[in-house]
């Protein structure tokens, strides 16, 4: 199971949000410095989110993200503000290993098929952000249907993996809700990366036992509630 430390970027700074709300942000300095910190502690992959893009459809942090890709040299999956096939292709051509398609995948499902055929399945992650079992898009404000049905559709269209974010517990640092993750793993045959609420080594171990292929560590990692080395040891 692979560990993806999160590097979320807002106004050029590394931040963590609570429940995806930009007014509930905590700043942690330079995105590149944080990326290098996690790599120095053993990470071989990063989960980078362009929050300015997610909120505004902006490429405001493009230069900073490209610098991060070049300077770190590790596996990078990127999301946030990817509103078109052209946006996704641009990032893949710029050196991102995998793009996360969220709202775009829901509103234009054929984009998943096109990009997987052009760049390969492994380059495409379909985002399944779920609240009370329903996929939510547009800043988690708009409901778009059952998350299991969407996951099956993304698999059929050619996504190489799914990023499941449990919005109900995301950013709260109160632990995971395992049942929705189990349902997803049992319902699809492609890789699942889990995010949301992971706050302790026991959460990591529980997710590993469900069969997920990766986890994203965010708020609890930055606040010190969970140490990266402990998560990496469990995932071996």
TrEMBL record:
Protein name as annotated = 1-(5-phosphoribosyl)-5-[(5-phosphoribosylamino)methylideneamino] imidazole-4-carboxamide isomerase
Task: State the Gene Ontology BP annotations.
Answer: L-histidine biosynthetic process; L-tryptophan biosynthetic process
Q: What reaction does this catalyse?
A: 1-(5-phospho-beta-D-ribosyl)-5-[(5-phospho-beta-D-ribosylamino)methylideneamino]imidazole-4-carboxamide = 5-[(5-phospho-1-deoxy-D-ribulos-1-ylimino)methylamino]-1-(5-phospho-beta-D-ribosyl)imidazole-4-carboxamide
The molecular function GO annotations come to:
1-(5-phosphoribosyl)-5-[(5-phosphoribosylamino)methylideneamino]imidazole-4-carboxamide isomerase activity
Q: Which UniProt keywords apply?
A: Amino-acid biosynthesis, Cytoplasm, Histidine biosynthesis, Isomerase
Q: Which species?
A: Methanomicrobium antiquum
What's any one GO cellular component for it?
cytoplasm
Pathway listed? Amino-acid biosynthesis; L-histidine biosynthesis; L-histidine from 5-phospho-alpha-D-ribose 1-diphosphate: step 4/9
The UniProt record lists the keyword Repressor:
no
Q: Does the keyword Amino-acid biosynthesis apply?
A: yes
* Family stated for the protein in its record: Belongs to the HisA/HisF family.
Top EC class of this enzyme = isomerase
State the gene name recorded for this protein.
hisA
Documented EC number(s): 5.3.1.16
Subcellular location(s) of the protein:
Cytoplasm
Question: Mind telling me which CDD domains this protein's record contains?
Answer: HisA
| Recorded superkingdom | Archaea
